[in-house]
Amino acid sequence: MAWLQLETKLGLQHPELLEAALEELGAVAVWLQDAGDEPLLEPAPGETPLWSNTLVAALFPAETDREVLTESLAGLLPDNALHFSLIVDRDWHGEWQQSLQPTRYGKRLWVVPAGSTAPPEGIIVHFSPGMAFGTGEHPTTRMCLEWLDSLTLTGNRVLDYGCGSGLLAIAALQLGAQHACAVDIDPQALEATRNNAAANACLNRLDIGYPEEISGLQQYDVLAANILSGILVKLGPAIRELLQPGARLALSGILINQAPEVCAAWKDWADLRVSAQIDDWVLLTGQKHGS
User: What's the pLDDT tens digit per position in 199-230?
Assistant: First the structure.
């Protein structure tokens, strides 16, 4: 089956009105992407990602009248520039998953996508990303995984705050942690985490839930939080109550120019420093005050 794909560049124009119009005209899928080469982590809940030149793309049934689309959208585009192409239907998600390969993080840890052959040696995490964020490929996730690999986690309790598909929590368990807790606001993320934990036979050592379902009654020895810097600034006091004195911390999802704000927001109770950098992304690591 073929599909008619429509693409247009919006610059800095907000895409919400165009998205709604495309759906009203019968688009079966609408998505946004960067028309240049500008890094952007997933948006905060309820926010729409924006680049300095946003590309909007949509899929329609192949028989859709291009002239009708062009006329209907004329008032919503900066220069009425629409590009049409016919594409053959494919299993896009399946092809993406097949393109993933086993990858080593640090000295010991291997992340092995579903359907791939595990290496003969090393600590293995079998992983299927599903529809949730977090495959290990993004620099922020890579730095967290390499940090976990560098630690001795035997007997530790680990908190993965903003768990995505549960990769960091499961990696910590495979690396020797006694127990872990994976927290996210997205039900798809929690379901993906359950499935990945089951695939790694560690579901009985992993608590999975929403932020409001955990409290300071249970404190953790290690924190890995791969989320947006603004959320880290806002949630610092709540996360503080979940950690033991002396807990080891790793914060990611942070651009280099955002690091000072995060460090300042946490300075009353934690010492943080930039310990790794890939492109413009940095990893902040340190400890909670106390012994």
Answer: 999 999 999 999 988 876 789 999 999 988 88
3 state SS of 174: helix
3-class SS letters over 52-121: CCEEEEEEEECCCCHHHHHHHCHHHCCCCCCEEEEEECCCHHHHHHHHCCCEEECCCEEEEECCCCCCCC
Cβ(55)–Cβ(7) under 8 Å? yes
Buried b or exposed e, range 26-61, using 16+ CB within 10 angstroms: ebeebebeebeeeeebeeeeeeeebbeebbbbbbbe
Please, which residues bridge with residue 224 across strands? 160, 250
Q: Please, which residues bridge with residue 59 across strands?
A: 5, 29
Confidence band for 48, pLDDT divided at 50, 70 and 90? very low
Q: What percent of the chain has pLDDT over 90?
A: 49
Q: Do residues 143 and 276 make contact, with C-beta atoms less than 8 angstroms apart?
A: yes
The structure's pTM equals 0.69
Domains identified in the chain and CATH numbers = 2-89 (3.30.70.120), 131-288 (3.40.50.150)
Q: Give the position of tokens 């990303």.
A: 129
pLDDT tens-digit profile of 142-155? 999 999 999 999 99
